[in-house]
Design brief:
Elements: H1 26-48, H2 66-73, H3 79-89, H4 91-95, H5 101-113, H6 122-132, H7 136-162
Helix pairs in contact: 2-3, 2-5, 5-7
Length: about 160
């Protein structure tokens, strides 16, 4: 007996097939099918305070300026918090002098989406490739160059501030 299971948070297509189960009890088979899903969602909740993965409807956009970056990374809806974050990030505008627009877009987009130990979402990576007309290897090189450029600028800027 095959009973399709529809779970809206995991997609609208049935993925459970009772015929593939080794258990005679369909209820037990569904539970065993759901355990890995529940385990993954619990881990996601522990690390990211959310269970849901971004879906296609969510706007995962390329970040082209500091305002977009502030809107993306700011957890607060408070205008004062966003202004404070923007003021702190304003030094990046000076750091971007000498970089091409492609370097800037790649740098900002990676800062918005990249998490420790994780790559940016695949859909964002594809949008970068299509929009900037670059292959993944070139994007990685641009990212490396932009990171070096900004890091060097920040080191020089901090060194100047520390000198009397």
């Amino acid at each position: 007996m095959q009973r399709p299971v529809l779970l809206p948070e995991f997609g609208s297509t049935p993925t459970f097939d009772g015929a593939k189960s080794k258990h005679k009890s369909i209820d037990r088979a569904i539970l065993l099918w759901m355990y890995p899903i529940m385990y993954t969602q619990i881990l996601k909740f522990e690390h990211a305070a959310t269970c849901a993965d971004p879906n296609e409807e969510e706007a995962l956009e390329i970040i082209t300026n500091l305002d977009s970056l502030v809107d993306k990374i700011s957890d607060s809806d408070q205008i004062e918090d966003k202004k404070s974050l923007k003021k702190n990030l304003q030094i990046l505008e000076s750091a971007f002098v000498g970089l091409t627009e492609k370097h800037k877009v790649i740098y900002l987009t990676y800062k918005a989406y990249e998490r420790v130990g994780k790559n940016i979402p695949r859909s964002v990576s594809k949008k970068l490739q299509e929009t900037l007309e670059l292959v993944p290897v070139t994007i990685r090189i641009y990212k490396r160059d932009a990171n070096k450029h900004v890091d060097n600028y920040l080191k020089e800027n901090n060194a100047r501030k520390q000198q009397p």
